[in-house]
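Fold it.
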Amino acid sequence: MTRLGRSLSASLPRRGAVWLLVAAAGLFHGCGPGAPDPKALVRAFNDANGKRLVNFYSQYQMEQGRGPKDEAELRKFILAKSPAALEEMGVSAGNLDGLFVSERDGQPFFIRYGAAAGGGRQALVFESQGSGGTVAVFFAGPKVVYVPAAEVEAYKVGGKDEQPATPPTTQHRRGVLVSLLAAAVITSAEGASTPDAGQQVMIRPEPTDDLLTNPGMGWETFGYPRPADKHLPDEIPSTIQYVRLGWGKLEPQPGTIDTAFLKGKITESRRAGQQLALRVKCCNPDKRTREHPTWLGNVGGRELLVDFNGGPADISIPDMDDPVVLDRHVDFIRRLGATLDGHPGVAHIDLGSIGWWGEWHMTRCKAASLPSLESRQRVIDAYMSAFRKTPLLMLIGAGECTAYAVKKGAGWRADSLGDMGSFSSTWNHMRDIYPTAIRTHGLEDAWRRAPVAFEPPHTLAEFVEKGWPARHIFNYALALHGSTFNGKSAPLPDDPAFRDELRQFLRRLGYRLVLEELAHPASVQPGASLDVTMKWRNVGSAPCYRPYRLAYRLTGRDGFRTVIVGGVTVDQWLPGSVELFTEEFLTAAPDLPPGPLHDVTDRFQIPADAPEGECELAIGVVDMKGERPVVQLGIEGRSADGWYPLSRVHVGRDGQR
């Protein structure tokens, strides 16, 4: 819930936030539909004792230039407030002792007394013990972070304060306060006050910890749309249905793609709130399931009878070295791309077709090996030509073909994430296979161009059954800049600690775009341009691989509503990174840091027919063609239609009232 009142308080030099909030919220009285409720705004900023205390502390700093010297001085300051003001903040003057106790651990807070007033966020109030291994740290603003108990001391001495670029002077602080209050003046029933030219509104939205449902990232169901996956709990969203389909299923007649079937799978996924991801199979070791077309032999294509795991040579597979088979399959890939490439309902395509299950190996088969390198590269080239918009992923274990595909622009996919002994007591994927493959095939920077996908060796239950370190495994995947995780639609462990780690992993998996600050002039003339300056950060693990665009919606009186697509795309905002494959990394992969801050300026024109008066300004991220938001942001305040109403701008002629 991002509201202008809250945003105004957050944009101050972090002093007196709640009291400015009350003042600014009062200006909204009589604003008409959609105006924030002042009392609701105050409650939102004071919904925990830690937040209440930092708000009182910040008000004291604003008046005295420093924080109270001790608890007695802070208590005296609080009790000097009116009963009505205390009640609005959820404080009882008769039970002030309760205010100084954390709701999470039931212990008195540690408070950093005597802190000089500063222009950034200051860590001021701290839980004594915390809960679940973390301690809540309350910053002025207010802002809350949860840190490991071992790290909290650095916060207590100000080592983690968020300082402004230039420390504000007292005169500057007062000027900001006056400017922001003036910019917040909204038309009321009695009349209107028009902001002066040059006044600025600054918004600092509140971040959210919610799991996001965004295109091309997150949890993949396997073979089922989301509603049919009975093992996936409601709290885990899924953005992708991942399927593996046979060549024969997709091309039942020579030269004819079953487009109705494909569109049906896309529609099935869309109805479940998902995109479709696809891998083509041409063979598998179960002779009862034929993956290649029944008509292939009739057109002169050669088929082979092969064995698996010591069984008889009675499994029919296509010979990809046969010119007829290879030509037919390359033509199939071309037409598959013509049907699916760039489709908004398709998340990615696995670069499959070769080997068992399209996995680029013929494990446990004595009668046949992989096609020649020339044939395999021709299949890769066919995929790269057919899919120029939809991301392609190559199996990490395909040897020189992995390097060939990635060099041409493919991302990669790794099975067996978390393997720390599933298959062997002398090697595993996490320490041996992945580091070697990534270095050998030059995959380190592939994530900058195309996605990385993971799935576990068997099921996630194995992590808990064998005591494998979930934090290390998930941090490892984030450090490799994963975008998706295929849970195999298997039951999840009931272990609460594991579920917490899984949720933390999914919160970072893929792109997570956070708007930290937005500023714009408080007023603009109809037909003129509005400059919006923003600070964005990707706190996820991967880029957004599609050039989705920032867009702005203005809503005014008399039903006025317009959407303006700006000139900024979000696909260049990269995540943070860590050093890979050191001994420390291979033992306990560290948390991935957030990506760099991006200073963004966008300019768009206010329609000449925009009505005079206040317009609500909302922001969204839309796709490459439409004007409907398609991306959830990592901030509070998302409305049901996907927009984020953040601010208001006065539209009017100079001096008009």
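Residues 1-36, 165-193 have pLDDT under 50 and may be disordered.
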